[in-house]
Amino acid sequence: MEQEFHRIRRLPPYVFAEVNAMKARARADGEDIIDFGMGNPDSPTPKHIVDKLTEVVRDPRTHRYSNSRGIPGLRKALSAYYARRFNVDIDPETETVVTLGSKEGLANLASAISSPGDVMLVPNPSYPIHPFGFIIAGATVRNIPIKPDEGFFAGLERAVQHSVPKPTAIILNYPNNPTCEVVDLDFYAQVVDFCRHHGIWVLSDLAYSEIYFDIAPPPSILEVPGAKDVAVEFTSMSKTYSMPGWRIGFASGNKKLIGALARIKSYLDYGAFTPVQVAATAALNGPQDCVDHIRQVYKERRDVLIEGLANAGWDVPSPPATMFAWAPIPPAFKHLGSIEFSKLMLREAKVAVSPGLGFGEHGDAHVRIALVENLHRSRQAIRNIKGFLSQYDKALETTEKMRA
Q1: Which terminus of the chain, N or C, has less C-beta within 10 A?
Q2: First to last CA, the chain
Q3: 124 plus 139 within the same structural domain
């Protein structure tokens, strides 16, 4: 049958697919590709967390279905984390739910609160699940600026004035993936005040709250008095404890939104595997020096990469947080756009990056570099990039011939 499915029709071709396919072909041909593409933490999960998993998994009673809201001990541990890190009280019974990573939580909450034609406000560029969670659910996405300045709030005002129907919700993500923007509590206070006044829900993605450098620890929107009236926040174990494959995250905040998410999840899953949840509890309640170590690993990689790229002739802003650098395409290559430049980097420098277009049309002048290679590999990448940039005219000539 040739019939297309409605929801699939609303999803454009995966922007990263072309670069990923080229990377796979190069590796199949035996080429050594240094991969800064996917934000996939490479450090091992701390030993005490793994030890707790292996201890608990030996008990066959833990092999049964779990709880879709999350086991009580893990929800209490998350509540304790919010209390000590943000001085925010979270009721573990009514104000938090365990998710299969923050990505699943965002997608399921989008499904819970969206109706066809609803207007959702999403920054551009943005992590793909932020707009496409709503698009898959049938809603309409209106883009707003990502930079937290006067233009951001002017964009909010325009969105409220010119959207029919009025916007239902707004997505925030700071520290931001992919742009690495950070905000302070005053910014969140203005957002909460605006959204309470206009009756707009706030969905905040705080996945990178513990990956920060040379700045104060990033705040939670829930620190703002009255934020729970409109806001829910998503956090994740993936980056903080180097647990990406474990798929554990949380949604916390407004009781109505948490209740809606919990109800949707009750139909869709039985929760994460219980030993994984117990190990996550041990992570939150246990020693936190591992978090400091993981943060230091990313900081060292950031410093080596940014300094090395500058010496190679590529000025990239030093990210204050996250595990990424948001790199403007060098002027000589800007006309290519992010996809062609990423392919050129892969072919000529044997370095893979993510094209900025994959995060929205306003990201096309950048590529995202993930800090997921060790220092030795990062230095090798810098040498490769320096050689590539030093012969940019030949690389451009080859590219133009291939495109002709």
Answers
A1: N
A2: 36
A3: yes
Q: Under DSSP, is residue 338 helix (H, G, I), strand (E, B) or coil?
A: helix
Task: Give tens-digit pLDDT for 92-130.
Answer: 999 999 999 888 999 999 999 999 989 999 999 999 999
Instruction: Please give the tally of structural domains in the chain.
Output: 2
Domain that holds residue 384: 6-44+290-403
Asked, for residue 62, whether it belongs to a domain, the answer is: yes
35 φ, ψ to 5°?
A: -105, 105
Residue 116 to residue 104: CA distance in whole angstroms: 20
- Rounded to whole angstroms, the Cα distance separating 79 from 81 reads 5
Residue 8, amino acid: I
Same domain, 90 and 31: no
**Burial (0-12, 13-18, 19+ Cβ within 10 Å), 143:** middle
* Residue matched to tokens 């209390």: 83
Residue 1 in any domain: the answer is no
Helices (H) and strands (E) in the chain, counts: 14, 12
Q: Do 54 and 35 belong together in one domain? A: no
- At residue 20, φ and ψ (nearest 5 deg) are -65, -40
378 pLDDT more than 90:
yes
Q: Give the up-direction half-sphere exposure of residue 100: CA atoms within 13 A in the CB hemisphere.
A: 15
Last residue of a domain, one of 250, 285, 320: 285
- CA gap 207, 133 in Å, rounded: 16
Q: Which pTM value belongs to this model?
A: 0.92
User: In whole angstroms, what is the distance from residue 276 CA to residue 268 CA?
Assistant: 19
